[in-house]
Amino acid sequence: MSLKNIRKEVMLSLEKNIDLFVDKFLISAEKIWQPTDFLPNSQKDTFIAEVEEIRELSKDLDDDFWVVLVGDTITEEALPTYESWLLDIDGIHQNPDNGWAKWVRTWTAEENRHGDVLNKYLYLSGRVNMREVEISTQHLITDGFDLGTSSDPYKSFVYTSFQELATYISHNNVAKIARKKGHKALAKMSRIIAGDEMRHHQAYSKFVKEIFKIDPSEMMLAFQQMMQYKIIMPAMHLRESFGAKGDVFGDFSAVAQRVGVYTGFDYVDILRKLNTIWEIDKITNLTPEAEKARDYLMNLPDRMYRITERIVIPNTKFDFKWLLPA
Known about the structure:
The chain has 326 residues and is mainly alpha-helical. It has one domain (3-309): Ribonucleotide Reductase, subunit A. The protein is built from 13 helices and no strands. The protein has helices at 3-15, 18-25, 47-58, 63-77, 79-86, 99-125, 130-143, 153-180, 184-214, 216-228, 249-259, 264-277, 288-309. Helix 12 packs antiparallel against helix 13 (288-309). The protein is globular and about 65 Å long.
């Protein structure tokens, strides 16, 4: 049997319990928070006063903070790209009876709220050129990106396990900064988004752990291959109006690192966490090739940490079209 067919068989095996995964890791629309819960209520007499409070508080958050928040928002709003990619994974298809498709659609519905609430908050802040933000979002969805996973579920679940933890870190750090600046509503919003991302990370990590039990050598090789070429960020091809593809991400990444929202050290820490969560040092019955992959993965965090220590973050003032003066 080919590797592709083996992967499909593994996905079929996991699909038998997909309803349990949905019930454990996802929350129904009636029970979960909705964007309106965090936004000024336009039906109340206090609406204008609440908007004015947001605008006043927003003046105390510097440009670097707003760049990070805009980048996070655009990344969240590029959701159609992520859903279409997940639905193309071997073992997942648009058949109404396909349990994996149910998972993807329900996960997408939860994720959709993140971009929705952040977009509205940016709009109310008065600090952001929303048309430029919208143009960047449209570009990011139009351009798409290659995750390096093809239609391989093993590699794809390594990616989602990593990426969901990365977004948890980013949103959680935004919450900390907002709270220090007295921006309590934004802090609460970002913290609860981070909670969603952590829950999703736990789900995808569980999928990988189950695959390790069934097909340990191929899962180990898939993990090693993903980390060898590094995890590509969803915002890799960020661009502004009339800008060349990919010419904004480097500046955005530099800002995110100097603000402390997402750094190279966070990347290394995520890799350490995945090694621990999946207990790759304890997995048995590996082929010689998979044993070498395990050794690579165990040594990689320390090697990447040493490289990260040498990186110098520029203090350059970047001119993003997304921002308006305070």
